[in-house]
Amino acid sequence: MIQYVFEFIGTLVLVLLGDGVCAATSLNKSKAQGGGWVVIALGWGLAVMLGVLIAGPVSGAHLNPAVTLGLAIAGTFPWASVAGYIVAQMLGGFAGACLVWSFYKDHYKATADQPDTILGTFCTMPAIENKARNFWCEVVATWLLVFIILALGTQGNAFAFAGTAASTGALGSWPVTCVIMSIGMSLGGTTGYAMNPARDLSPRFAHAILPIAGKRDSGWSYSWVPVFGPIVGGALAAGLYLLVF
Fold first, then answer.
1. pLDDT tens for each residue of 164-222
2. What residue ranges define each of the domains in the chain, with the CATH number in brackets?
3. Nearest to 149 by CA among 173, 171, 176
4. Which residue of 21, 40, 159, 196 is most buried, as measured by CB atoms within 10 A?
């Protein structure tokens, strides 16, 4: 049970800071408005790092249903814990998005005439809507994320002292941070690189439920792309991992 609590808290922090940087750089009258894509990619990378630092020692800090499923398929995580992890992650993502809204509530009011901007602070929407291509982009980005996470745990990448494997502790979060930032800067321009149903679907529900002035619909016709794309990408990454490692 304690692992689920830490998955909830870690995912909450991830979305609070990740959606938070989107709100900070997008909403009217924010001091960070106009910060741009590099700031968003850096902010998301650091958001993941801080979530990992919190949850890592207890739950392993998956913070992402696609990662949890990929690790289970690869045989490095027990299937019995998958459902509990995913529920905790989805609830954490919802709570994190609600906190962003409460934090920036005055700025959401000031941006009430820009419903697309408001939606973009909660969840992803494509730059050019082509659902087949958008799905492929999410598959590729998440495949890369999960495959690198799995590769980081292999012999040669894992830390060892005097021939004995040891935990990397806080050091383990930094490579993942770099991966998130790199994917965001290189592959994020098409869909916003969701790569995580808990980062996208849960905040989308929050957008639908919260009393946000001037909001549009929550983009439900697109919502399946950042859910199933990451799941397929994570499964493919696990398959490749089993094949080559």
1. 554 444 456 788 899 999 999 999 999 999 999 999 999 999 999 999 998 999 999 99
2. 2-244 (1.20.1080.10)
3. 176
4. 196
